[in-house]
Design a protein that fits this description.
By secondary structure, the chain is α/β, with parallel strands linked by helices. The protein is about 35% helix and about 25% strand. It folds into 2 domains: about 5-125 and about 290-305, NAD(P)-binding Rossmann-like Domain (Rossmann fold, 3-Layer(aba) Sandwich); about 130-290 and about 320-330, 2-Layer Sandwich (Dihydrodipicolinate Reductase, domain 2). The protein has helices at about 25-30, 40-50, 60-65, 80-90, 105-120, 130-140, 160-165, 175-180, 180-185, 185-200, 290-305, 310-330, and strands spanning about 5-10, 35-40, 55, 70-75, 95, 120-125, 150-160, 200-210, 220-230, 235-240, 250-260, 260-265, 270-275, 275-280. The strands form 2 sheets. Strands 8-9-10-7-11-12-13-14 form an 8-stranded mixed sheet. α4 packs parallel to α5 (about 105-120), α6 (about 130-140) runs parallel beside α10 and α10 (about 185-200) packs across α12 (about 310-330).
Length: about 325
């Protein structure tokens, strides 16, 4: 197979179409043909089409049938994702879909099972796996450089949820449409990281959620602690409470601590601490910097006939932990 060049983007009402991950900007900067964008909101579809010099469609099925893309990036409201994913799987179109792929763990597990039965090419972007911190942490864990791992910290605190309203995604404040707040949207990165780094089963030990800052029906802060089968603890802390808006900044921390060493993301790179060792490794870090590389890797994998680096099953595993955390926090 050749690397896909004809790409379409579904349901561009999702803020990642133009902000943060900014998939449309990524595609514009790559050697691909953006053959169409779709959205049920005609104004949003036309705006994105005009800005990125492509065709606007009101329905993704009509767009795909008319343009015949070789690859699709599927966005949209979380509640709409399962129906979109099922259609794309059954149409045998390789695609990347934003997490969480649905508003319930059951729906996402069903999608993973369908993708596996059909041998479908479905990727989910957890690009923090590609970060220098994650790659070094996984290698050091595999080489037993930490000794027994005590704990992992994964924190992403983003600015106000009001930014979703300003970014044409007001549905993110609607529990039925989004499925949850910061834990649903940001927590999956940390849940996935726990399994990715430790390569063992993890379970939710405790969790709390809060909507004190924004008083919305979706939470603006969450803290979950996971425990791995070997006893390592993973603290996943996420929120919409960074008080810097309109500056789009994050409070982030990524750290692995063990009996023999500690690795953490530091300004401009990584820091390794161990007896007699305080080493700094140069490596840029950003919670969104790896998305262009993730998209490029997806296209190259499809071209080579390789499977995705992050699968629908990986997403289902992360979403199951998210919903276990909601139960632990007292939300049904």
């Amino acid at each position: 197979m050749s690397t896909p060049r004809r790409v379409a983007v579904v349901d561009v009402n999702h803020w990642h179409s133009t902000y943060d991950a900014a998939y449309l900007s990524i595609l514009r900067d790559m050697d691909v043909d953006l053959v169409g964008v779709s959205d049920g909101n005609a104004a949003i579809a036309e705006d994105r089409a005009h800005r990125f010099e492509t065709q606007a469609f009101g329905d993704y099925r009509a767009m795909i049938e008319a343009t015949r893309p070789e690859f699709v990036i599927a966005l949209g409201r979380h509640v709409d994702m399962p129906a979109t994913a099922r259609w794309l799987i059954e149409a045998d179109v390789p695609f990347l879909m934003e997490k969480p792929m649905g508003t319930t763990a059951e729906a996402v597990v069903e999608l993973a099972e369908l993708a596996e039965r059909r041998g479908a090419w479905v990727a989910v972007p957890f690009p923090n796996r590609q970060s220098a911190w994650a790659q070094n942490a996984r290698a050091m864990i595999a080489a037993d450089e930490f000794g027994p791992v005590s704990h992992i910290v994964f924190r992403i605190i983003r600015p106000t949820m009001q930014r979703y309203v300003e970014w044409d995604s007001p549905w993110m404040l609607d529990l039925a449409a989004a499925g949850g707040g910061a834990l649903t949207n940001l927590g999956g990165h940390g849940m996935d990281m726990a399994r990715f780094l430790l390569q063992e089963d993890v379970q939710v030990a405790s969790a709390v959620i809060s909507n004190t800052v924004h008083a919305s029906e979706v939470e603006d802060y969450a803290l979950a602690t996971l425990r791995s089968s070997s006893g390592a603890l993973v603290h996943v802390e996420v929120g919409y409470t960074m008080p810097t808006w309109p500056a789009n900044e994050s409070d982030a921390e990524m750290k692995v601590a063990g009996a023999k060493a500690m690795l953490r993301a530091a300004p401009g790179g990584l820091q390794i601490l161990a007896p007699g060792r305080d080493e700094h490794l140069d490596a840029a870090h950003s919670v969104v910097s790896a998305y262009p590389g993730f998209v490029q890797d997806c296209l190259e994998r499809v071209g080579r006939g390789d499977g995705p680096a992050v699968t629908a099953r990986d997403c289902a595993n992360a979403v199951q932990l998210i919903h276990d955390a909601y139960r632990a926090a007292g939300r049904g």
